[in-house]
Specification:
Layout lengths: L37 H27 L4 E5 L3 E2 L12 H14 L5 E5 L7 E5 L1 H14 L6 E6 L5 H15 L4 H13 L6 H8 L5 H17 L11 H11 L2 H13 L5 H13 L3 H11 L8 E4 L2 E8 L2 E7 L5 H17 L1
Parallel strand pairs: 2-4, 3-5
Antiparallel strand pairs: 1-5, 3-4, 6-7, 7-8
Helix pairs in contact: 2-3, 5-6, 5-7, 6-7, 7-8, 9-10
Length: about 350
């Protein structure tokens, strides 16, 4: 059988190509111009719906596990939702934070929880300084990038959990002074979050040592006696605070310290600390007389006959010394001479 030789391939001529039946694969029709069959289109739609469900489930899980971040308008956050543990802002630290956010943006989110039926829908748990810094930047610049703050949304687990989160965050990031720790314990007890201040200290600072909690309780004494008069209480160092707390247990020293704070202006923390030191160096009224009594001679119960018919007794006491003269020789003329001599001696010093 003879072999056929194949010639070179020729271009396809549409005029000679047989037409495909309508509805055949690849023809334009209900599957669309892309040439997809209906089953492929249904499969694509099903995959898109599955992706949306997966995304929705992921968002729900993030919200449930408190991993959801949101950019919230500054005006929607209530900074007074909790009594703050920080007493004030250090100018240098706040200036540094403002410049950091201005240059690099907000690095760490704040923590909020939803508020039901409140004027502002979000209550601030932690991040007060970041909220203040962004508020100042927005007031200064008017830029939209400072109009919102990134927040981690927490569940509403009650006031105790919110206070614990606030205190723990500040302890980790910057640390609180002993006075600030004592103050927030007192405030939470006043608000009924805890039954009393001892319970507040035990629960809020459970991660701390027993020694630390004991020091916080000592600073509670300072807050209870002087909190309304101190201007810079967060600057009281530990050693001075413990001395002050011990001294305040005496009512007379507490009254003395209150009078000093009420009557002495202080412009700086150093002024206030110096005033506290001066008052502590002053013996309490009950103890002030002891050194003087130690310098007096011992009581002479029998007395001394300094001349015939005249006996002298010394009766030292707390802050006083009594001379007692007795005997038949003590007449009116002698008494007048003795009084004049004593006055003259005291005036001469």
């Amino acid at each position: 059988m003879a072999r056929r030789r194949l010639g070179p391939a020729r271009p396809l001529d549409a005029s000679t190509t047989p037409a495909r039946p309508a509805g055949a694969a690849g023809a334009a029709g209900p599957a669309g111009p892309a040439g997809l069959a209906p089953i492929a289109r249904v499969a694509g739609e099903t995959a898109a719906e599955a992706a949306l469900r997966e995304l929705s489930d992921a968002l729900s899980a993030a919200r449930e596990e408190e991993r959801l971040l949101a950019d919230l308008p500054l005006g929607e956050i209530d900074p007074g939702f909790l009594a703050r543990d920080r007493i004030g802002l250090q100018d240098e630290e706040m200036a540094a934070l403002i410049e950091s956010i201005r240059a690099h943006g907000q690095r760490s989110p704040i923590e909020v929880q939803p508020l039901q039926g409140a004027e502002k829908p979000w209550g601030l748990i932690s991040g007060w300084r970041r909220l203040v810094a962004l508020s100042r930047l927005h007031a200064e610049t008017g830029e939209d990038r400072f109009a919102t703050i990134r927040a981690l949304i927490r569940h509403d687990r009650g006031a105790e959990a919110a206070y614990l989160a606030m205190v723990e965050e500040n302890e980790i990031r910057a640390g609180l002074s002993h006075y600030e720790r004592a103050r927030i314990a007192a405030l939470t007890a006043e608000r009924g979050v805890f039954a009393n201040t001892r319970e507040a200290v035990a629960r809020l600072f459970a991660a701390g040592s027993r020694a630390r909690r004991s020091k916080i309780l000592s600073f509670l004494t300072i807050h209870n006696h002087l909190g309304d008069l101190l201007t810079f209480p967060a600057h009281i160092p530990e050693r001075l605070g413990l001395r002050l707390a011990e001294a305040l247990k005496e009512g007379e020293m507490a009254a003395l310290m209150r009078r000093a704070l009420a009557g002495t202006p202080r412009a700086t923390p150093a002024d206030e600390l110096a005033l506290i030191e001066r008052v502590l160096a002053m013996p309490a009224p009950g103890a002030r007389r002891a050194p003087h009594a130690a310098l007096l001679p011992r009581p002479d119960t029998a007395g001394e006959e300094i001349r015939p018919g005249l006996r002298l007794k010394l009766k030292p006491g707390r802050g006083r010394l009594v001379f007692e003269l007795s005997g038949p020789a003590l007449d009116t003329a002698m008494r007048e001479r003795l009084e004049a001599a004593v006055r003259a001696a005291l005036r001469q010093g």
